[in-house]
Amino acid sequence: MKRLIYLSRCRPTLKDETLYDLLAQARQSNRDNGLTGLFIHQDSLCLQVIEGEEGAVRDCFSRIRRDWRHDACQVVFHDSVPDRLFPGWPLVYRAGRDLERSQVRQLADIVECAERLAKRPTDADRWAMEVYLRALLDSFSSLAVQ
Ligand SMILES: Cc1cc2nc3c(=O)[nH]c(=O)nc-3n(C[C@H](O)[C@H](O)[C@H](O)COP(=O)(O)O)c2cc1C
User: Fold this and answer.
1) Measured from the CB, is residue 67 less than 6 Å from ligand 1?
2) Any idea which architecture 2-144 has in CATH?
3) For 48, which of 85, 114, 120, 139 is 20 to 30 Å away at the CA?
């Protein structure tokens, strides 16, 4: 089981109907491919978690990273994991306005840390990224109870 988490910047056109169409298609495709995950869209920022079998995650992300509706994809986590965080959820969606204040702060920490890692990777920031991601993902742990 693999989990991949990336950040990207959406085009301004990716909102409302376009976004709901994208989510409907992505959920169908993720269901077909045994994938689950989370998609957060706050202003122009996207954070997506994709989890599933290695090949399915790889194929899905290679389609996603070529998609013109966003750019600047940066993988911030990609590793083997024992369990899914979003079992039974082909793609949970959260808009920025749905996030709790603590989640907004965690997201800002993740983005700042990703910027530092892109410029000059250090062990301290790699470790900090793990801590920030864990805090954000823990805040969705109620979704893991199915
Ligand atoms: C931010 C973002 C997230 C996406 N998430 C998924 C996803 O979880 N699963 C998926 O199949 N497609 C997702 N897509 C759509 C894919 O990029 C792609 O358009 C779709 O899989 C169809 O690919 P194809 O035209 O090569 O068959 C996402 C696109 C964007 C812009």
Assistant:
1) yes
2) 2-Layer Sandwich (3.30)
3) 120
